[in-house]
Amino acid sequence: MRKTLLIITLGLIATPTFAAGKHGGSHGSESEADIDRTIRFEAGDMWFDPEGLDIVSGETIRFEIANTGNLEHEFVIGDTSAQEEHRKMMLEMAGSHGESGVHGGHGGHDGHDMAEGGLGSSMPAVTIAPGETAELVWTAPENAGDLEYACNIPGHYEAGMYGDIDFQG
Ligand SMILES: [Cu+2]
Question: Residues whose CB is under 5 A from ligand 1 (ion)?
Fold first, then answer.
């Protein structure tokens, strides 16, 4: 029983990775060509490393985010107001059952779905379980405002889980 649950959890986490590729199989290297660079992030309990990010408009970045903390974290890219909206939504959703960090209790409780459902595809988001590494592929927009990356699980952003995304050139 416990083993089954673990496999399901891993399956959910792996989804963004597979979504990034086109069809996998023997043509896996094709999607690699579209990636301009890979940036490794570490998500700890209430911090991200690095603490800021410099990007160039139009580049495609693959983020590899390793959660080395003991809590579940998310990595969401969006402008500051969209992040704030997302936080409010997360807070409302957490209201009834608190921030337990327990997996598997609710079938559809997945941060990835939440971000997509509530805010459209403009907010790339991935949820990372403790000890797991998640991938997110993102192309930097041409004309963006104040972008930042953040973990919007209640209390985390406030504790420092965010960073500025600055455009270079
Ligand atoms: Cu967090």
Answer: 73, 151, 153, 156, 161
pLDDT above 50: residue 112: no
Per the document, the length of the chain is 169
Q: What's the Cα-to-Cα distance from 160 to each of 79, 113, 150, rounded to whole Å?
A: 16, 24, 9
- pTM assigned to the model: 0.68
Q: Could you tell me which CATH number the domain at 23-168 has?
A: 2.60.40.420
Sign of CA dihedral 50, 55, 59, 119: positive
DSSP string for residues in 54-71: EE-TT-EEEEEEEE-SSS
| Cα 4 to ligand 1 centroid, rounded to whole Å | 26
Instruction: Encode pLDDT of 148-169 as tens digits.
Output: 999 999 999 999 999 999 998 6
Centre of ligand 1 from the C-alpha of residue 32, in Å: 29
The domain locations on the chain are: 23-168
28 Cα–ligand 1 center, Å? 31
